[in-house]
C-alpha cells in the first residue's frame, strides 16, 4: 500500500462531487471494478464522510496538531480499518485495506483514513492543507520537501500569482 497515494486520494475524495453516482465514477477513474459497483448509497455515505473529514484538513492548515490527531482517531473509531498483507505472487509485500464484503464507500473511507494516519505520523499533521487561492476551498496533502505547498493545483497557483502580479502593477501605476 502506498500510503502517500492513499492520503492524496483522500484529498481528491474530499474535493470530489459526490452528489450523484457519475461524480463517484469519475473519482474512481482507472478502478473499473469499483466503478461498476458504485451506488447512490455510496455517494450518500461519502458525502457524510466529506463533512466529517474536512475539519481534519482545516486543523492541519491551522497547525492544530491535537485536532488533526483527535479528528483522525475519532474517524478511525467510527470507521474501523482492517489492513491485510498482500504479496502479489510472493513479491512486494505491502498493506492493503481488506475488501471482503466492503461497499465502495467503506473501502474508500478505509483507504483514506489509513493513508492520512500514516502521512500524519510520518510527515506531520501540518502536511494537510486548504487551498490559499480565493475562492477555492479544495484541500491537499503537502508532500513538498520543505512544507511549502499553498495551493491545491497548478491552476490555482497560477491564478493567484497572476492576480498578485496584476495587483502589484495596479498599485505601482497608482503611485
Automatic annotation (TrEMBL):
The Zinc finger CGNR domain, residue ranges: 127-169
Pfam families (alphabetical): zf-CGNR (PF11706)
InterPro entries: ABATE, ABATE_dom_sf, Znf_CGNR
SUPFAM superfamilies recorded: Jann2411-like
PANTHER family: BLL6575 PROTEIN
Protein name per its UniProtKB record: CGNR zinc finger domain-containing protein
